[in-house]
């Protein structure tokens, strides 16, 4: 598979080891993914460097200060988009969600609000993303070739921004609006070492891929699944109404405290992540001969952690094809059983930001909107992500609550 002899790991215990045993396994993504994501990307760099970059970038991505700032970007864009969609008639709901999440992530990264610039970057990113899992054929007409060209253009744009931010600091110019680029330029490790330009750019490209594509699909499926299960919808909406009712009259917008009160919403999101399986596989490679469950994995063989099988195995989740947030009422699942964001040292570093974005959208959707699909029984396409073939053609309708 992917041009290399491969082993599939499909149980919680084997996936747990594949994610956490850094002495036995290292990243093993296809050539196309490694080349496009960059030499300093988390999916390519060795374990020790990976740990350093993870540690140094955790606060700019998932820290309290960062998430508080990002909430304002996310909520403003969600409210604007929902209102606009009600006036547009029939839309491709998934396409519009992907545009929304892209706009949000670009504002979080670069504070970029110019619609022309955002659309230009989105076109480049679409071509870039199309080559991540493609065959590494660098010839005109092939997805990988288009993706390499798109990466070059995206890197050039990000380099311009890095240069401009470094110039500001040399000239002691005030920072009016702090975004993720500013945080990454300023952050340093315990030895005073800062990130270089290549590290910053490859980190941004990685988050662009994870924070935009996955979030848009999960938001679409969570919205659809809530509407298909009226009792779940009712419980989720009641929780959001309670948060609104208890809000001080002087407060504008959601807070992190309110987000952390969304206990049932968190279960809805976790169940959507399990049910939909956006990240259906992760790639590792054996650093040495590895014995596992009576089998030998030879050095250099690729190891594919098949998350979709783990999440849909009835041994792990009774009635796995049922959408049931109540399955999360008990104690958390054992290690390796719920892995939508990976695990161990390779846990997706943007997982908190992604769940925050999903929750904010669902908060506003539940309180005032509904989706009327044009083709509810539309066939599904499963690669690279499961989605309706019509990209969820629908109308977004404003609901007047009593």
From TrEMBL:
Required co-factors? heme
Give membrane topology per the record: Single-pass membrane protein
Pathway noted in the entry = Plant hormone biosynthesis; gibberellin biosynthesis; Hormone biosynthesis
Q: Name one GO biological process term.
A: brassinosteroid homeostasis
Q: Which Pfam families match?
A: p450
Q: Where does heme bind?
A: 348
Q: Which UniProt keywords apply?
A: Heme, Iron, Membrane, Metal-binding, Monooxygenase, Oxidoreductase, Transmembrane, Transmembrane helix
Which cellular component terms (GO) are annotated to the entry?
endoplasmic reticulum; membrane
Q: Which InterPro entries match?
A: Cyt_P450, Cyt_P450_CS, Cyt_P450_E_grp-I, Cyt_P450_sf
* Keyword Heme included in the entry's annotation: yes
Gene3D superfamilies found in the cross-reference section: Cytochrome P450
List the PROSITE patterns hit by this protein, alphabetically. CYTOCHROME_P450
SUPFAM superfamilies for this protein:
Cytochrome P450
Which GO MF terms are attached to this record?
ent-kaurenoic acid monooxygenase activity; heme binding; iron ion binding
**Tagged with keyword Oxidoreductase:** yes
Q: What is its main location?
A: membrane
The record's subcellular locations are:
Membrane
Record's superkingdom?
Eukaryota
Q: Which family does it belong to?
A: Belongs to the cytochrome P450 family.
Task: Sum up the protein's function in the record's words.
Answer: Catalyzes three successive oxidations of ent-kaurenoic acid giving gibberellin 12 (GA12), a key step in gibberellins (GAs) biosynthesis. GAs, which are involved many processes, including stem elongation, play a central role in plant development.
- By its UniProt entry, which PANTHER family does this protein fall under? CYTOCHROME P450 26 (PTHR24286), ENT-KAURENOIC ACID OXIDASE 2 (PTHR24286:SF356)
Q: What name does this protein carry?
A: Cytochrome P450
**Species name:** Dillenia turbinata
Question: Taxonomically, what lineage is the organism?
Answer: Eukaryota, Viridiplantae, Streptophyta, Embryophyta, Tracheophyta
């Amino acid at each position: 598979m992917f041009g290399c002899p491969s082993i599939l790991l499909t149980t919680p215990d084997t996936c747990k080891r594949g994610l956490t045993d850094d002495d036995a396994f290292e990243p093993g993504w296809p050539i196309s993914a490694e080349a496009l994501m960059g030499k300093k990307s988390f999916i390519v760099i060795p374990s020790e460097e990976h740990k350093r970059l993870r540690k140094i970038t955790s606060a700019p991505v998932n820290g309290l200060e960062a998430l508080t700032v990002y909430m304002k970007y996310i909520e403003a864009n969600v409210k604007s988009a929902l209102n606009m969609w009600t006036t547009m008639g029939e839309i491709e709901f998934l396409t519009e969600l992907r545009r929304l999440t892209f706009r949000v992530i670009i504002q979080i990264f670069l504070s970029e609000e110019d619609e022309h610039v955002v659309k230009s970057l989105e076109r480049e990113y679409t071509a870039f993303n199309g080559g991540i899992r493609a065959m590494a054929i660098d010839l005109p007409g092939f997805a990988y070739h288009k993706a390499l060209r798109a990466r070059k253009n995206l890197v050039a744009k990000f380099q311009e921004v890095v240069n401009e931010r470094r110039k500001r600091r040399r000239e002691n110019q005030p920072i009016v609006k702090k975004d993720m680029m500013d945080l990454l330029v300023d952050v340093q490790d315990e030895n005073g070492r800062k990130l270089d330009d290549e590290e910053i750019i490859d980190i941004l490209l990685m988050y662009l891929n994870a924070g935009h594509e996955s979030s848009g699909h999960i938001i679409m499926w969570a919205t659809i699944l809530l509407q298909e299960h009226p009792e779940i919808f009712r419980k989720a909406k009641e929780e959001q109404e309670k948060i609104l009712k208890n809000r001080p009259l002087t407060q504008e917008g959601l807070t992190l405290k309110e987000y952390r009160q969304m206990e049932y919403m968190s279960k809805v999101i976790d169940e959507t992540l399990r049910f939909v399986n956006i990240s259906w596989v992760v790639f590792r490679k054996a650093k040495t001969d590895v014995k596992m469950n009576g089998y030998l994995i030879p050095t250099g063989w690729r190891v594919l952690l098949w998350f979709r099988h783990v999440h849909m195995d009835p041994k792990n989740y009774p009635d796995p094809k049922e959408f049931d947030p109540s399955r999360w009422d008990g104690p958390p699942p054992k290690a390796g059983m719920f892995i939508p964001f990976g695990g161990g040292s390779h846990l997706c570093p943007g997982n908190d930001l992604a769940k925050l974005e999903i929750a904010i959208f669902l908060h506003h959707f539940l309180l005032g909107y509904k989706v009327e699909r044009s083709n509810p029984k539309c066939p599904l396409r499963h690669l690279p992500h499961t989605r309706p073939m019509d990209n969820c053609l629908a109308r977004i309708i404003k609901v007047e609550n009593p």
